[in-house]
Amino acid sequence: MSVRTKDDTAVITHAGGSRLAEVAEAVGEVVSRGSVAGFVGGVGFLLANMAFATTQGLPAVAPMIDISTIFHGADTPTPSPENMVVGLVTHTGLSILFGIGFALLAAAVPTLRRAPLLVVAAIAYGLLLYLVNFQILGRTLFPWFTNPEGPNQGFEVFIHAVYGLMLVPFFLAPWRRVGVRA
Predict the structure, then answer these.
(1) Hey, which end of the chain has fewer CB within 10 Å, N or C?
(2) Phi, psi dihedrals of residue 13, rounded to the nearest 5°
(3) Are 176 and 11 in contact (CB under 8 A)?
(4) Which of 55, 77, 52 is nearest to 66 (CA)?
(5) Could you tell me which of 72, 93, 49, 63 has the C-alpha nearest to residue 141?
(6) Prediction pTM value
(7) Is residue 136 situated within a structural domain?
(8) pLDDT at position 91 over 80
(9) Structural domains in the chain (count)
(10) Is residue 179 part of a domain?
(11) What angle do CA 166, 56, 78 make, to 5 degrees?
């Protein structure tokens, strides 16, 4: 394999020109960037939710207990040490999947890789996650997320936009271009 740079994009060529190897490497990059971005964004998101919960007179673990209702399909959260872990694992997994989703979007739409458009797209993506997860799925499958006693909707809109912003740094570096030969 050889790597050369052209127009701030790394061009990958493989000995023997294996197109499958090139595609596999590009997919690996997309999934890797998305996984790391989603994990880091998810940790920041969860820490902010935990801090906010304490300002509302709730324990810092309340967001994890809330999120456990997704895994269990429960209408209301049940505080327990088990559900704190279930919520943490569920949240981490979803954050990584959402990061991969954004990476696929950024890979499919190359114009989004320019910083100003990337920032706008990331904020829009975070807000779309809120809309789908809270307003659609929350109203149909996970009622705790739209319950007046549940998560604060104003804060959730804000922190979902911030989650999108936390993805941005992972997509600013040049991307590999598949299919271009030296």
Answers:
(1) C
(2) -130, 140
(3) yes
(4) 77
(5) 72
(6) 0.84
(7) yes
(8) yes
(9) 1
(10) no
(11) 90
Reduce the secondary structure of the chain to three states and give it as a string: CEEEEECCEEEEECHHHCHHHHHHHHHHHHHHHHHHHHHHHHHHHHHHHHHHHHHCCCCCCHHHHHHHHHHHCCCCCCCCHHHHHHHHHHHHHHHHHHHHHHHHHHHHCHHHHCHHHHHHHHHHHHHHHHHHHHHHHHHHCCHHHHCCCCCCHHHHHHHHHHHHHHHHHHHCCCCEECCCCC
In a domain, 88, yes or no: yes
Task: State the CB neighbour count (10 A cutoff) for residue 41.
Answer: 26
Kindly report the backbone phi and psi dihedral angles of residue 11, in degrees, each rounded to the nearest multiple of 5, phi listed first.
-110, 125
Place of tokens 């929350």: 138
Q: Which amino acid is at 27?
A: V
Range of the domain at 130: 2-173
Q: Residues 39-50: pLDDT tens digits?
A: 999 999 999 999
Q: pLDDT tens digits for 115-155?
A: 999 999 999 999 999 999 999 999 999 999 999 999 999 99
Q: Tokens 């299919």 map to which residue?
A: 179
